[in-house]
Structures are given as structure tokens and as C-alpha cells.
Amino acid sequence: MFEGLFNKSSELKDSLPEVRGKYLENVKLSKHTWFGVGGPAEILYLPEDEDDLRLFLLKKPESIPVTIIGGGSNLLVRDGGIMGVVIKLDNPNFKKIRLEDGVLKVGAGVNNSDLKKFMLENSVGGMEFITSVPGKIGGLLRTNAGCFGGNVSQVLVSAKIMNDWGEIHEVEKDDFNFSYRSSTFPENWIILEASFKCVTKERKEIEELFNEHKKYRETHQPINKRTAGSTFKNPDGLSAWKLIEDAGCKGLKVGGAEVSQMHSNFLINNGNATAEDIEKLGEMIIQKVFEKTSITLEWEVRRMGVKR
Ligand SMILES: Cc1cc2nc3c(=O)[nH]c(=O)nc-3n(C[C@H](O)[C@H](O)[C@H](O)COP(=O)(O)OP(=O)(O)OC[C@H]3O[C@@H](n4cnc5c(N)ncnc54)[C@H](O)[C@@H]3O)c2cc1C
Asked: For the segment 103-146, what is each residue's pLDDT rounded down to a tens digit?
């Protein structure tokens, strides 16, 4: 039985302010994460729009924790689930894309395939690489996602955020202090929209880059499996996958979790893994790599929630 903040999620719901969006009780987060594991959210709140979210943050009891998720492609939600309210910006109001004075403004709830479609239809390029990362724009910024030699901070101009008092601010790129897969962005701020530098390009040229990136991923990463991408950050000047492979971890298993044969920094849920299996496998890898190299790998996958 899930032990949340209240005996029943309906009691938590009763303590929350009235909203125009939706409150869903006891929602399985395994359906909202790429790994396909994890316990429930006591309440999943889907705000209707920015104003609905603002009033929720202003009026909710202070003691109730709030967690924001995007596409769940970088998350390991533990089997006991997440207490309090989980927010997902899934309403079309958070999925708008527009071009303004040569800057591309993308809602936090936009996913990579919608962004690709917009870029092709409007001949907008210069940031093709970020569309190959799974997930949504909010998660992309929060994790300073990167690939193919670039990262989000290189193409970001500014972001519209909401703080925990419901105030909206436009924050310049430099104020995020981006570094490798991280930033000093406060945990309790919610990204609403990102503004990106872009250039006008031939549709064909953009399409070619998209296809090149897709092909690379299909041949180098287990993108069709239940995974959350690179599990560990690359230590300075080194590759996590190589350290993992050299420590003899390729193919290592715990329950239904396995180190990918294709890319050893990817962990896979073979279908019946629990979050505990995946986390234990990760900890086992950290230990084995440390025993061999005295290097401690750092999780890139974000672990959240409570153990069962
Ligand atoms: C097959 C595969 C390949 C991948 N390849 C790459 C890669 O090449 N490069 C790379 O960097 N990553 C990669 N990843 C990891 C992942 O796709 C990225 O980290 C992605 O940007 C996460 O976005 P998301 O929307 O899924 O965020 P989530 O996983 O849902 O959340 C990630 C973090 O962002 C926060 N967050 C989400 N939305 C918001 C918001 N609106 N406001 C504030 N905080 C928010 C969450 O609280 C959490 O801390 C890969 C993952 C998979 C499954």
C-alpha cells in the first residue's frame, strides 16, 4: 500500500485549491517515465495554463511538496512513488511554438517531434541537435541536455520561469550558470518557455541533419528499449561507458534491470524491472568502477521519490 502524506490521496486533494486544470489521484508514474518503473504520484496536477498554475502555487498549503516532471526520459522514480503533488505541463497551452524577431520561443511542454515538425515547416535551423534528445523543452533546459558536440546552453537566449510564489520572470541564459548537464537553476522554479537562437535554413539541410542524428542514435544507443539515456556523467576527460565496460559491467543484471549490450552507460528495464533493481544495478556499477579505478561515477539520471 502506498503511504503518502495523507491516508488517502482524496484527503490530499481536498486540501488543495480549486483549479481549472485537472487533479488525478494515485497515478502510476511508470506510465509517465521512459524506464517504465516507479510508484504512483499521490496527485498528478495538469494545469490548464500559466494563470491556473500561478493560483495553485499561491494557494496550496506550504507543507505540500511539489515535483515537476517533463517527458520522464531522465527520471528514475522509486517504487514507493512521489509524495505530494506532481506537476506535468501537458495542456496545449504549454505546447506553443512561435518565431519572434528571429528568436524561436518554445513552450516547456513541447516535445522533440513537434519541434522538429515546426522547424521543417518554417525552415528554422541552427539547433537541430537538441531535437534528437527525447523529452520536453522544460526537462531539456533543466538538465542542460547535450549531444553531437553541443548543449542546450549554447543555443538558449533566455527562459520564462515561474517561481514558487507564482511570479513569472524572463531569465537570461547567463543567470543559469550552466555547466555539464547542470545549472544553478533553483529546484523549485518551473520553466514555462525557452527562447532559442536560430537561423533560416533550407528544409532539405535541416532534414538531412535530423536523419543523420537519428541514424547515429539507432546504431549506437538502445533507443527503442526502456531506458533513461546515459546513466552516469562522464568524469572529466573520460567516458563513463568505457570505465563501465573496463570494470566488466557490460551485460550485468539485477532482477529485470540490465546494462545495455549496445551502450554500457545505458541501463535497461527488460520488462519486469523495479526501480529498486535499476538503482541497485547503478550502485553496483559505481562500486565496481571505483574498485578498479578509484573514480566515483556520478548519476546523470535523476532519482526521485521514496523506496517501497
Ligand atoms: C534514449 C535516450 C537518449 C537520451 N539521450 C540524451 C542525450 O543525448 N543527451 C542528453 O543530455 N540527455 C539524453 N537523454 C536524457 C533525457 O532525454 C534528457 O535529460 C531530457 O532533456 C530530459 O527531458 P524530460 O522532459 O524527459 O525531463 P524529465 O526526465 O521529466 O525531467 C528531468 C529533470 O527536469 C526537471 N523538469 C522537467 N520539466 C521541467 C520544467 N518545466 N521546469 C523545471 N524543471 C523541469 C525535472 O524535475 C527533472 O529534474 C536521453 C534519454 C533517453 C531515454
From this structure: 999 999 999 999 999 999 999 999 999 999 999 999 999 999 99
Tell me the per-residue pLDDT of 20-29, one tens digit each, with 9 for 90 and over.
999 999 999 9
Q: For ligand 1, pick from 73, 225, 267 the residue to mutate: most ligand atoms within 8 Å of CB.
A: 73
230 a catalytic residue: yes
- Residue-wise pLDDT for 40-67, tens only, equals 999 999 999 999 999 999 999 999 999 9
For the purposes of burial, counting CB atoms within 10 Å of the CB of 83, is it exposed (0-12), middle (13-18) or buried (19 or more)? buried
Residue nearest atom 17 in ligand 1 by C-alpha distance: 134
Grid cell locating 270: 527488460
Specify whether domain 9-90 bears CATH 3.30.43.10: yes
Q: What is the pLDDT of residues 177-223, one digit of tens each?
A: 999 998 988 989 999 999 999 999 999 999 999 999 999 999 999 99
Residues with CB under 6 A from ligand 1: 34, 68-75, 89, 108, 133-136, 138-140, 142-143, 145-147, 190-191, 221, 223, 227-229, 302
- Which residue is closest in CA terms to ligand 1's atom 1? 223
Alpha carbons 143 and 299: distance in angstroms, whole number: 12
Q: Which fold has domain 95-220?
A: 3.30.465
CATH label, 240-304, candidates 3.80.30.20, 3.40.50.12780, 3.30.365.10, 3.90.78.10 = 3.90.78.10
127 to 103, 147, 214: CA distances (angstroms):
12, 11, 15
Query: Rounded distance, CA 288 to CA 261, Å?
Result: 17
Domain with CATH 3.30.43.10 in the chain: 9-90
Q: List, by residue range, all CATH 3.90.78.10 domains of the chain.
A: 240-304
Q: Establish whether 181 is a catalytic residue.
A: yes
Would you call 121 a catalytic residue per the annotation? no
